[in-house]
Amino acid sequence: MTVMVESSPTKAGQAVTTLPLGLLVVLSAILLTLAVAIYRITLHPLASFPGLPLWAMTRLPYAYYFVIGRLPYKIAKLHEEYGPTIRLAPGEISFIDEEAWHDIYVKKVPGFGQLQKNPTDWIPPQSGVSGLGPYPLADHVHSRIRGNFAVAFSERSRREQEPILLKHVSEFILALKENSGIPLDMCKWYNFIWIGNVFGYATGAAILGVTQNFWPLTPLLMSLVPKKMRDAAEKHTRSTEDIVQPALKNLSQTDGVSYQELLETCVSFIIGGSETTATLLSGLTYYLLENPRVLAKLTHEVRTSFSSQEEINSAKIPNLTYLPAVLSEALRLFPPVPGHMRRVVPSGHHVTISGHTVPPDTRVAVDIYSTGHCSHNFFKPEEFIPERWLADPPAEFRNDKRKVIQPFLVGPRACIGKAFAQLEMKLVLASLLLEFDLERVERKDDWLGGLKVRGFFSKDPLMVRLVPVKKE
Ligand code: HEM
């Protein structure tokens, strides 16, 4: 609404027409915005950090690139242009060097502790209770929950769980054989492996959890559950070899996890565990098809190391040298979690990150996608060259900063499933190349270049024809 202010006579008797109130408000808002923007690029404590002035003035360009799904690509370009430390928004700094990993995600601030996640970056779970996963948790709550799941991810547990994993890999290969010769969308196929795996676990856990929640009615409720599901839950409680079992034993005990924490963590296992490994395997398949030399070399290593799929297991996989190099190169170029896991510098504290003094309340992160795509860290960064990861890499790659590649994060909040995921991806890849020749089904557009990112890569179909290998 525009309010007209009456004309008022001056001493000289002339009438001065004052501005409509609405216009005054708009003008003041514009002036204030301009003043804030100018402050942010001149006097603001982060003003000396390099970057595009518009990004330092307002978060709008950041939001724009996020909405159109191109944010990681844009941030990588900004790092390439402005260096390993850049200002990404008025109150945010992005890093891509090795030291920053330690300074942000591992080091403790004296008198405060670890840098924390920002609660407003995440929509909390509907239940209001968080488990392991992206949502912020106080250190003591996080370490209690994580402690309950840590046993399930130990080396020993992984060996016990391996038969389950191998069973799912061989079922996956069998299903692919039944569909060989026709174009398959490998992105979808890779998602099936882990989904099948985790749902098996989660069903047992959920049944048991729900009924225990209503103790002393548990026996009655269990009798209402269909026999097939009851047997699954029963088998689940007897087994020691899955990722939920150890936490389930301590359900609702002091220092154990609550039912809701268990469920929320299972959600992270399902989403975090399936989407990530499937994304990596999809990207890797694309890179292999684009680089026939690498595909041929890797296929040769797999087929000279194993003569049947039954031989492929965690004891033999470490004998391969090219396979882990290929996986590392794919994680460098196509990290399944390509964003920046922000932390906040606590109020009243300055911290040193990569030699820079960063003021209180600043958001800081290492940008995972940019670490692998910038020439500050790698020679020929956009090329898929697994040889750079070998124990004795070619001379031109000796200065590559391999330790900046941390797709699973570092520190106490790093991925709990790292070793599990790496084993799973190696088993799948080795089995696939042992059994099939991969043929690209031609596409007109560039699969990789068109992918949008909003948290995860949203993957377009990656059509591949699998030709079974003829065995003598
Ligand atoms: C290539 C595969 C994977 C990648 C790249 C990956 C990456 C990550 C990253 C970057 C984080 C930190 C997220 C944050 O700080 O918000 C994380 C956390 C987590 N990941 Fe993974 N992940 C992978 C596979 C898996 C698998 C297979 C599982 C389950 C079996 C899993 C379970 C989790 C859980 C539960 C957390 C939260 C840990 C905590 O809060 O302490 N991830 N992952």
TrEMBL record:
Cofactor(s) required, per the database record: heme
Lyase found in the keyword field: no
Keyword terms: Heme, Iron, Membrane, Metal-binding, Transmembrane, Transmembrane helix
GO MF annotation list: heme binding; iron ion binding; monooxygenase activity; oxidoreductase activity, acting on paired donors, with incorporation or reduction of molecular oxygen
Transmembrane portions of the chain: 21-41, 47-67
Binding of heme, residues: C415
Pfam families the UniProt entry points to: p450
Keyword Iron-sulfur listed: no
Family: Belongs to the cytochrome P450 family.
Record-given protein name: Cytochrome P450 monooxygenase
